[in-house]
Amino acid sequence: MRAPLSWLREHADLPAEVDGRALAERLVAAGLEVESVERPGHDITGPVVVGRVAAFEDETHSNGKTIRWCRVDVGGAEPRGIVCGALNFAVNDPVVVALPGATLPGGFEITARRTYGHVSDGMICSSRELGVGDDHEGILVLATDAAPGTDAVDLLDLRDEVLDIAVTPDRAYCLSIRGIAREAATAYGVAFTDPAGREPLPVDGDGHPGDIADPRAADRLVLRTVTGLDTGASTPLWMQRRLVLCGMRPVSLAVDVTNYVMLETGQPLHAFDRSRVRGTIVVRRAAPGERLETLDHVVRDLDPEDVVISDDSGAVGLAGTMGGLTTEIDAASTDIVLEAAHFDPVAVSRMSRRHRLGSEASKRFERGLDPELPPVASSRAVRLLAELGGARHAGSVEVDHKRATRHIELDPARPGRTAGLVIPPDEVARRLEQVGATVDRSGPAGTRWTVTPPSWRPDLADPADLDEEVIRLVGYDTVPGLLPHAPPGRGLTDRQRLRRRIGLALAHAGLVETPTYPFMGPDALDALGLPEDDGRRHALRLANPLSDAEPLLRTTLLPGLLGALRRNVGRGAADVALFEIGAVFRPGPDPLPPAPRPSLRGRPTEQEIAALDAALPDQPTRVAAVLAGELEPVGWWGGGRPAGWADAVEVARTVAREARVGITVGADRHEPWHPGRCAALRVDGRVVGHAGELHPRVVAALGLPPRTCAVELDLELLGEDPAPVPAPRISTYPVATQDVALVVGADVPAADVEAALRDGAGELLESIRLFDLYRGDQVGEGKVSLAYALRFRAPDRTLTVEEVSAAREDAVAAAARATGAEQRGG
Fold it and tell me: 468-510: per-residue pLDDT in tens?
């Protein structure tokens, strides 16, 4: 919101010495975000004066252009000769003249120069050249009796200061001069004159009829009919100047008045050409299949949830967003219907997003406006049209569905207790009254007060909101900076330590942690090739997503990680290894119950906590990783090694080691992995995740490098929180190593063979490692040779050859019984 300081001064009695920067500091201290303070007109230097056209001659030159050679009285002894290309002025018209030596906005320097056969001794200015409007085709003709030579900069108030304020969503009232002036008056403790404080015009039931068909979409509608508007009336310069300073382009008197009142009060208005409206104006939901061509000349297919303004011909506008083309006012419009309403902010916000159509009106409605403004703002617009355009008020119609008055119970000591300050009750009441609230202190001293927030503050709903208002006005800088004392003896939980160990282990293995957004879209699940009945497709939809392309809470970590992989590869990082540890959201088959809203007066009860938990989906923590390119780079030592499915499995083994669980690997078919290169990861026979190479169709759909690999594990399924591990006893006796090669069927998992060897070897086995795999003629078709290195060690003695051989034979025998393995060469 851009707020000219001169406009703010009309409603806040600020001291004369206060400039834009000083006011910005006070507003920032009160909690507003002032992004910049601009000083338009302060770059105008030199003589810029009022002139009066004494005479002129029209001349047409060889290039076909007609110019005027003018004689202009600027208060000197003789009129000045000035060449002008505009033709919209007459003799004796007062104009603005920039004399040689002047500098206009943008660093435009004025000099006497020869052009079109004359020496032009200055320049007659347009509104755009002075920075007071958008018209550059014609000269700015003044409505003034000022004598020639009068300083035009002071006369027209060309120098001003503009505060550019980033209004947060909870402060819709600051999207107006009314709201910012109130904050400025409060900051300096001076009088405030409410621009919406004038008595509205009476509602007589005459004029154009209107109605509200859906009270959930709008609870107030005011229609005021204006007739006899002078089509030749133009917007006065002072109004154009303010619109331009606020970032709006002057259009016509009727449009400019509605925009001016919106900026002044915060209430958007819309003007319909009465001759184009057919029948009663009604606020309703859109009908199925209904269409509307809006003022931007776009034909829009309406959604049944859209809120529209309609007449007997159908929809004529998107409520609170943009009007329709069929009822647009133009230069010939003399009879106008002014519409002012209070629309549901959620409905307007969703409609604006749905149609990708943001406007100054929707920006205000979706934040929540004052429901008491429509009759006041529309009256202000009617009076301006009557004053400036000779219009007449021909009747008003109002539909008002009364709203319940909000009351908040407040302990007067609470704001001070919240801030850690001593704030007397009288100051608490004074600060609340400064924001427009009514404080009922009729109860016994020290008891709870009843606070009624003002109608323009829908964000004040709880005692905590009142605390914030009092504290920000007292001053955030007065709040003591004391850190809370952490209770002794507390640290990370076992589950937090596990998560940290896993992150460090994966980082040490060469992977980079990449937190991603917890949102995804249906297109991502389609690209992963998930079946329609896959549980990962059952996702929660956000009520207000940051992006329409990602409206779902993620059910898997892979979409975000694969998106990060694609972005990195697209920026030239060919070899990428990323991982993420985070929550996914897996709702059950039944709809979630609505979440309760516990009281803020104390800690929620156990029943309330249980109800809150029941309203949330299951949120298991998962770890996932994606690998692409070379895992080991090319160098002088030799060729590199590309990442493969086995490396994804090794990531899972790294996670399992940190969780101190044994993981078994077996072949599986599970989207989005390649059916021949997909491993199921099991702990105690239960599937905890999958790893392997992604399906080529998935790689192509997502634009990933060929042979991209991925792994995803559910940390919640790895078992209970691991207990502290006692320090291992290190044996000082030597190790005995035995190698064994076993031939098994090609369909036998190596993990089953390893488990059998481990069980058979007994307590003397220290470790086992698969170091070779062979398929070929020497073992026969459908067979595979697995070679393992077994390390034996005793804690209290050196093992004999007989003990090691016996343990080895027991291990081989156990593998033979469990998997049908045969010792190769034995």
Answer: 999 999 998 888 887 777 777 777 888 888 999 999 999 999 9
Q: If residue 210 lies in a helix (H) or strand (E), which one and from where to where?
A: strand 210-212
Q: DSSP string spanning 588-639? A: -SSPPPPPP---SSSPPPHHHHHHHHHTS-B--EEEEEEEESEEE--BTTB-
CA angle centred on 446, ends 443 and 449, rounded to 5°: 50
Q: Which tokens go with 187?
A: 């900051």
Place of tokens 């160098």: 635
Same domain, 357 and 460: no
| pLDDT of 135 | 67
Provide the domain count of the chain: 6
Does residue 336 share a domain with residue 259? Answer: yes
What gap in Å lies between CA 690 and CA 692, rounded to an integer?
A: 7
Which secondary-structure segment (H or E) carries 60? strand 48-60
Kindly report, residue by residue over 182-199, the tens digit of the pLDDT. 999 999 999 999 999 889
What's the whole-model pTM score? 0.68
CA distance 453 to 434: 11
Label each residue of 762-815 as H, E or C. Answer: CCCEEEEEEEEEECCCCCCCCEEEEEEEEEECCCCCCCCHHHHHHHHHHHHHHH
Q: For residue 141, give the CATH number of its domain.
A: 2.40.50.140
Q: Quote the tokens at residue 714.
A: 């559910």
Q: How far apart are CA 311 and CA 322, in angstroms?
A: 16
Q: Specify the CATH number for the domain of residue 791.
A: 3.30.70.380
CA–centroid distance for 7 within its chain: 31
CA dihedral 453, 455, 457, 460 (to 10 degrees): 40
**By residue range, what is the domain housing residue 775?**
736-823
Tell me how far apart the alpha carbons of residues 752 and 262 are, in angstroms, rounded to a whole number.
Answer: 75
Q: Between vectors from CA 190 to CA 185 and to CA 191, what angle results, nearest 5°?
A: 85
Residues 6 or more apart whose CB falls under 8 angstroms from that of 165 comprise: 1, 2, 3, 27, 32, 33, 34, 35, 174, 180
Residue 632 included in any domain? yes
CATH number for position 682? 3.30.930.10
Cα-atom radius of gyration of the chain, to the nearest Å? 39
Q: Tens digit of pLDDT for each residue in 163-189?
A: 999 999 889 999 999 999 999 999 999
Q: What is the C-alpha to C-alpha distance for residues 660 and 719, in angstroms, rounded to an integer?
A: 9
Give the bridge partners for 743, in sequence order: 785, 822
The three-state DSSP-derived secondary structure of 1-33 is: CEEEHHHHHHHECCCCCCCHHHHHHHHHHCCCE
Q: Is the dihedral of CA 291, 292, 297, 300 positive or negative?
A: negative
- Give the contacts of 705 (CB within 8 A, at least 6 positions apart): 569, 574, 628, 629, 699
Q: Does some domain include residue 487?
A: no
Q: What is the C-alpha to C-alpha distance for residues 30 and 163, in angstroms, rounded to an integer?
A: 15
In a domain? residue 596: no
Identity of the amino acid at 381 = A
